[in-house]
Amino acid sequence: MKNPVEIKIQIDPQCHDPVILIRTDRKTQRVEDIVHAIETCTNSSYPLIVGYRDSEMELLSQRDITRAYVEARKVRICVGKEVYESNKSLSFLEQQLNPDRFIRISRFEIANIRKIASFDFSTTGTVYIRFDDGSITWAARRYVRVIHQALSRIEAGKEE
Amino acid sequence: MLWKKATLLGLAGFVIGAAIVICLVLLDSQPLQGAFAHIVIGGIYGAVAMGSSVVYGIEKWSIARATATHFLLVFALYFLLVISMGWFSLSDPVFWIVVGAMVAVYILIWLLQYLSYRRQIREMNDELIKWKSGNS
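Structure tokens for the assembled complex are given below, as produced in the milestone run.
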């Protein structure tokens, strides 16, 4: 069976650190998976996040995290419908999370921008964020510009 | 943090409010000594108006809630001062003209903020759709 992904290695004496280039006609889920696999193998600066559920520790891939927020003075991490607890502060988590993927949306919450399905603005003037898994949260108005800029960067293809 | 910001803004508001009254008194060619109470009240009004503007920074509050709260605080103080100082009576049309102007200004504040954020949210949704359709 033919390997579905063609891998070429080019030896370049000028290139001291490996450079990985993915050639594709468009960004697909498969491309995302490849990028994630490479990130996981090579990038130790964005580690797996420790989460606790029913007293059991689990290592969470940053890619799977939807959002992290403070509730009743505890930091909770959402992975799909599952909610984990963290013993770290939200600021500490923010430093560990990939800034290309995670942004602050309020003093109490960090969201995975790649899991956002849509934004909504209520008549009274509250910004709501709907995620791909159907969950909804609110964003502080002062972070709207930051979120907008992050989206513009992603849309312009300046990241990944 | 919020109280600290409110206090600093309140102090700045006091200075601005008092300065406005001093300017009005001087423009009216009245002696400043006789207008001391008015200057202090102008300062208090400025302090409350600016200090309470921190409600716009409360993250959980919607624009409508923040605007309504600020309006009620400023209006309540205006009402108390006007009645206690005997500036206007409730039957004086000037009192109601000022109230009408305040309501109009606050509706305008809410409307401008609402339209500005709504436009940004629309742009964000457009970018999200473009990015998601490029990935599918």
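Residues 2-135 of chain B form one domain. The first helix of chain B runs from residue 2 to 27. Further analysis is deferred to the final report.
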